Amino acid sequence: MTEAIYLEVAEKAENAHKARRQVSVSGMLKYLGVSRSGYHAWMKRVPSNTAKRREAVKARIKDIYDESKQNYGAPKITRKLRESGEIISERTVGKYMKQLGIKAQWIKPWTITTKDSDFSSKLQNSLDEQFNPERPNAVWCSDITYIWTIDGFVYLTSIMDLYSRKIIAWTLSKSLEVSCVIETINKAKARRNIEEPLILHSDRGSQYVSKEYRRVTADMQCSYSKKAYPWDNACIESFHSLIKREWLNRFKIRDYDHAYRLVFEYLEAFYNTKRIHSHCDYMSPNEYEELYYKFQRDELTLVS
């Protein structure tokens, strides 16, 4: 029987239901060319083990999707399923997600939002797109992004450790003052061990080339993206797109306080602690750093 006929029958049944009229089973069976005995056999059939497993997997996929704040796509969900012992392909997970009507949050491309400075001729790109340092606190990157609220824009300044992609410090402000960037840097310095050489990469925005910025980063090696080239700072740019697409854009944000609560919930209760990252071998940033330090302790134990 063609799909068109099935759709027509479904439409007739739906119209009858809306009009509170009974549907003639005999009439429908005759229309479909199905015997009454075949219909009753279909009604009484017990789902196969394969069908039961399929529905169980779909339920688990939905659970993982919801636990990720409805952000994970097929690759990450497949990874989580395999960790629990499920043998399944990414293609099958994608098919089931389509049947469930769920999908990953799409991340829009970067846009250029900063202007070059008069100090640009002296700015060097020490990082040179080397985004995979061998240890924590070897390379940090920083950027500022805007967040729309009904009460006006607020601005998120973030610092990421490139080793784990962890956001080690952030500040939400109502202006683009240099002091907001300085506050974020001071938070990062207070929380992390920077006794070894450290590169701090940013774009060429006015906050990052100010005298106060250069003063507070005097013990670091400052690195800057090329003019109008956001890919030099791709990781932090990607994160700011991510937090908007996965979380902030779902809400009609009222004001600064509402925005702060949302940013805090995403960063402190999900991104750093739970959200798996392909760069981190499908661990959270916190777990990835903890594994690094565990290996360091184990090596020291063996040496001693």
Outline the fold blueprint.
Elements: H1 3-18, H2 25-32, H3 36-44, H4 49-67, H5 74-83, H6 90-100, E1 139-147, E2 154-161, E3 166-173, H7 178-191, E4 199-202, H8 211-216, E5 221-224, H9 234-246, H10 256-271, H11 285-303
List keywords for this structure.
single chain, 304 residues, alpha/beta, Nucleotidyltransferase, domain 5, five-stranded mixed beta sheet, 11 helices, 46% helix, elongated
Report on this model:
The protein is elongated. The chain has three domains: 1-44, no CATH class; 51-100; 139-294, Nucleotidyltransferase, domain 5, CATH 3.30.420. The longest helix has 19 residues, at 49-67. It has helices spanning 3-18, 25-32, 36-44, 49-67, 74-83, 90-100, 178-191, 211-216, 234-246, 256-271, 285-303, and strands spanning 139-147, 154-161, 166-173, 199-202, 221-224. Helices cover 46% and strands 11% of the residues. It starts with a helix and ends with a helix. Helix 5 packs across helix 6. Strands 3-2-1-4-5 form a five-stranded mixed beta sheet. With 304 residues, it is α/β, with parallel strands linked by helices. The protein is built from eleven helices and five strands, in the order H-H-H-H-H-H-E-E-E-H-E-H-E-H-H-H. Involved in the transposition of the insertion sequence. Residues 132-293 form the Integrase catalytic domain. InterPro entries: HTH-like_dom (IPR025948), Integrase_cat-core (IPR001584), RNaseH-like_sf (IPR012337), RNaseH_sf (IPR036397), Transpos_IS3 (IPR048020), Transposase_IS3/IS150/IS904 (IPR050900). This is Integrase core domain protein. It comes from Dorea formicigenerans.
